[in-house]
Recover the amino acids of this structure.
């Protein structure tokens, strides 16, 4: 049995669907802090900070694998730093401890490009390099990575992780990240043929289409344990682009589309993150391969959103 924490979120909603299609509807227990609609399998309302209830669910359903997707993202955590730290760290410890106690066999926990900072090499950022995050979210992800590696090395915990770039999907909206503009822009392009971007022209960030991100997550979890050489978190490169480039791609489909710029506090966060990422380690260790580029992703996003 598989448990997904944060199943109502941007990644969770798509991951639950894929896992249920693969393993069977009843084999995946979805949980979220609030009731989520259209559940096709077991669902529990769970505040992931409620350790007792989480443990009870793990026992009741005889859970073997947990995908822990609960977090406050970069922009939101800057507004509630203490709560961001508490939520992101305490929930990770609960899950790692369940694995340490032998109650579950495998853990997936996402890290982020937010672990990098102003002194990290900005282009083709290597797997092992300077990590000096400036946000609470980034600090929590970096600390989480160190703890994952510690639990793997010292307690034999099978924990696997990816440093997600900005994720772009059509099924649900992201909640409180710095890369959210790249999802919002598609919705606004279809609704009003214009978009006011909260990041400045020329701000390059690594992004990834959700289909690739979900496939990466499942492939990493299915890889043989001995091939997972990095137990902190794997770099994943994805697609690097600036707002004017995604706008130009959208314009090929919607010629009237216009982008304007009104950078806010998220600009500073974006400037502290890499523009592109080197993911050779993921390619070598578990065969990672990107399928969607900016062109293919834009075609798919606009086509699918148009039908919704
Ligand atoms: C965010 O913008 O906070 C997230 C991330 C890059 O982890 N999308």
């Amino acid at each position: 049995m598989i448990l997904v924490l944060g199943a109502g979120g941007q990644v969770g909603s798509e991951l639950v669907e894929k896992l249920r299609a693969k393993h069977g509807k009843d084999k995946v227990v979805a949980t979220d802090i609030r009731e989520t609609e259209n559940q096709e399998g077991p669902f529990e309302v769970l505040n992931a900070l409620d350790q007792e209830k989480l443990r009870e669910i793990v026992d009741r359903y005889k859970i073997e694998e947990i995908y822990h997707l609960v977090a406050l993202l970069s922009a939101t955590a800057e507004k509630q730093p203490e709560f961001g730290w508490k939520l992101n760290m305490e929930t990770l410890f609960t899950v790692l401890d369940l694995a340490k106690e032998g109650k579950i066999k495998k853990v997936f926990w996402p890290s982020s490009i937010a672990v990098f900072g102003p002194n990290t090499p900005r282009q083709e950022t290597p797997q092992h390099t300077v990590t000096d995050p400036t946000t609470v979210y980034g600090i929590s992800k970096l600390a989480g990575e160190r703890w994952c590696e510690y639990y793997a090395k010292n307690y034999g915990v099978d924990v696997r992780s990816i440093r997600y770039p900005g994720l772009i999907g059509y099924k649900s909206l992201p909640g409180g990240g710095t890369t959210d503009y790249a999802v919002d822009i598609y919705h606004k392009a279809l609704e009003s043929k214009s978009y006011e971007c909260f990041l400045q022209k020329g701000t390059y960030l690594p992004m990834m289409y959700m289909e690739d991100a979900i496939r990466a997550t499942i492939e990493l979890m299915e890889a043989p344990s001995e091939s997972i050489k990095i137990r902190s978190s794997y770099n994943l490169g994805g697609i690097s682009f600036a707002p004017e480039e995604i706008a130009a791609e959208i314009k090929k489909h919607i010629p009237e589309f216009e982008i304007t710029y009104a950078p806010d506090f998220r600009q500073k966060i974006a400037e502290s993150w890499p523009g592109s990422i080197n993911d050779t380690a993921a390619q070598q260790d578990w065969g990672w391969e990107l399928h969607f580029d900016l062109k293919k992703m834009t075609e798919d996003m606009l086509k699918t959103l148009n039908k919704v």
